[in-house]
From TrEMBL:
Residues 1-30 form the signal peptide. It holds the Pfam family gag-asp_proteas. SUPFAM superfamilies: Acid proteases. This is Gag-polyprotein aspartyl protease. InterPro entries: Peptidase_aspartic_dom_sf, Retropepsin-like_bacterial. Keywords: Signal.
């Protein structure tokens, strides 16, 4: 769902907030099992959540709907989904009471399940107190059209083989840092050193153990609160973020709240004009904190969903091996294939990569799970992204 691999090996892990501890809890596994199991466990709640009413429901409405689920196991399932949505909504000050209520109500079930036990040990008493004192999350959007520069590197003067879309982000204390614009990362992540410089309130006794879809295990993060985070003339206040030793990522949780955007190879435009055409309509899908942008495509004449992942360094990455391998000498990390890509009626021959050790999550297409492909940052040589989640008018257009 985001970049493939590790920064140390020449790529970046933008999906770093997919936790091995939360595969059950947040329905974020790399296979269809968790989502299917969750649906069977609480059909009424999850059917409602997938409906138009459920998609537009407030946090209060979600809590009420889950409270009506009387079966203990099903109630635990939907309670964890509501808890995850609190993260997605950045409702930091609502987390403590709901988190503690689930722990009390389902203490025995949580104690018997290692993943749930780890999930409900992520906050200590200091973190609970700090979260309760946080003001409400809010967004003040820029009033006028603004064109923000996208930089290829984290710092001016850097020269590497890796080019990612960095933008300048400002904190309340006046410190500016560059973050990768990563539409494949569900949640915003801040590097530990950056967090210190930008004045983030670190929840010192919080712990979030996670893995990635791309083979990394045993990673660790904490949580923190930005008093203010500014992107151009837009400002987020009281922002809950993850803090780790990895790169700064501006995830889809905040990107999607910026309003009408246009992302090109060199600029991020706030309050962009609506696109004159829509080559490929983007579907915004979310399940708890797992969010992604997809378009319908065909690879090697097989229907698939393509995830728009600006944190992925490749042009195109496939979750399955292709039919026409290209010999790549001494490269154990990935295999290269030739294939035919069809997007919005336009077909072309393309070279793409497959990483055997990494598992890109499958997608639902016409009621069936199918492999996914990723359009990474290099694809923006040929495409641009128009994003307007509020109006459900988002497009992936050829330049």
């Amino acid at each position: 769902m985001a970049a493939v691999g590790r920064r140390q090996t020449g790529r970046i892990s933008g999906i770093s907030l997919t936790s091995s501890l939360l595969l059950f809890a947040f329905c974020l596994c790399a296979a269809p099992c968790s989502m299917a199991q969750a649906g069977k466990a609480a059909v009424d709640f999850y059917s409602w959540l997938a409906s138009e009413q459920g998609q537009k429901a407030s946090l209060t409405q979600m809590k009420q709907q889950c409270d009506n689920v009387s079966d203990a196991g099903k109630n635990l399932d939907c309670s964890v989904s509501v808890f995850a949505r609190l993260f997605e909504a950045k409702a930091a000050n609502q987390i403590p009471d709901y988190y503690l209520a689930i722990k009390r109500r389902h203490a025995q079930s949580i104690a018997k399940d290692p993943e749930l036990n780890a999930l409900f040990s992520m906050f200590g008493s200091e973190s609970i107190a700090a979260l309760r004192s946080v003001g409400d999350f809010s967004v003040t959007r820029a009033r006028h059209r603004e064109v923000l520069a996208i930089h290829p590197y984290a710092r001016d003067g850097d020269v590497t083989d890796e080019v990612f879309p960095y933008i300048d982000v400002n904190a309340a204390n006046g410190v500016s840092s560059r973050f990768i614009v990563d539409t494949g990362a569900p949640q915003t992540r801040v590097n530990i050193d950056t967090a210190k410089r930008m004045g983030i309130t670190l929840l010192s006794d919080s712990h979030y153990g996670y893995s990635t879809f791309y083979g990394e295990r045993g990673l660790s993060a904490k949580l923190g609160i930005f008093k203010s985070l500014k992107i151009g003339g837009s400002e987020f206040r009281n922002v809950l973020v993850f803090v780790s030793d990895r790169d700064n990522l501006l995830g889809l949780d905040l990107i999607g709240k910026l309003g009408r955007l246009k992302v090109t190879k060199k600029t991020l435009v706030l309050n962009a004009e609506p696109p004159e055409r829509c080559d490929s309509r983007i579907t915004y899908a979310r399940m708890d904190i797992n969010q992604r942008l997809t378009v319908a495509a065909h690879l090697d004449r097989q229907a698939t969903l393509a995830i728009i992942d600006t944190g992925n360094v490749d042009y195109l990455t496939s979750s399955a091996p292709g039919r026409q391998p290209i010999s790549v000498v001494n490269n154990p990390l990935y295999q290269t294939y030739r294939g035919e890509l069809s997007l919005s009626g336009h077909s072309r021959l393309i070279t793409y990569k497959y990483y055997p050790d990494f598992t890109i999550p499958p997608s639902m297409l016409r009621g069936k799970y199918v492999p996914s492909i990723l359009f990474g940052w290099r694809a923006f040589d040929d495409y641009e992204l128009n994003l307007d989640l509020d109006a459900d008018r988002s497009c992936f257009n050829r330049i």
